[in-house]
Design a protein that fits this description.
The chain has 293 residues and is an alpha/beta fold. It has helices at residues 4-11, 18-33, 39-54, 57-72, 113-128, 145-154, 182-191, 208-214, 217-223, 225-230, 246-249, 259-262, and strands at residues 100-104, 136-139, 157-158, 173-177, 201-206, 235-238, 252-256. It starts with a helix and ends in a 31-residue tail after the last helix.
Length: 293
Amino acid sequence: MSDAGEEWQVARRRKGAARKSNLHQVSLNSTRCQEQLDIGKTIKRIRDTLSELRCEEFWQEWKEQLLCAASAAPSEKEDTDTVTDQPGRSRDGRSRQQLECVCYGLGSFSSCVSARYQLAMLMLLLDAGQIPLKDCSVYDPAFSSGERDVLRELGLTVLTENEEGKRLVTKPTLFYLMHCGKALYNNLLWKNWSARCLPLMIIIGNSFSGMRDRTIERELKRDYSYITQAVPVCEETQLPCPSRLIDVFSDTAVITFPASGLNRLPQSTWAEPPEPQYQHCPDLEIIQREAQS
């Protein structure tokens, strides 16, 4: 890393706290620097970072855990009431459907080294999971117009609408949510709160059990009820992180929702889940879309 010393001073941040304290400032900084963003140079830096990560020992474990989770994911046409005995195959023996990918909250990767490492890791995961670049949708309100151009040049699909995480899945989907706020995870769970949709999701992001342990119990139950309910029925595999990248990849897990566990819950669990409102969260760790006038 040629300019590591200076950049790490900018990038260092406590895990989970960055999005809350820097959301608006990052957006302003991105707007100011978009005019002088060198797209070619930025892409080269991303690819150099990707090559660096590919040589890291911990990357192999990330790759193996993604492939393991992907092999167990059902297709959207498969009956999720039963668990198959053949990983990577549906009940009729056919290969499982190709994953799609959604990435929220990446941050300003042209000015923040942590975000650039996270983008490079995303690219590696897409390659490992054989997910076409065009099938990966990315969004962050902090992206400058230059950064959106970089992402399109890389081949990714840049979303134009702030979905606030409220995306309904209809096929196996990898969600890459690095150091995002609890509200975004909670919104995603709410939108897919059914025994049919949850098993279609693979999340690479902050550990749900870690969120539970760091949050006052009554506040988690009141404000983030879907995370609260998901903790006992999801499966988490903690991903390794070298000490020098602790601010980039700490507290990251692969999270899945096996149908076998969901089907043991009472049907009342899924009855008309109310949309989260966050009335008691003045410091909400998410940029919400502007209300329509």
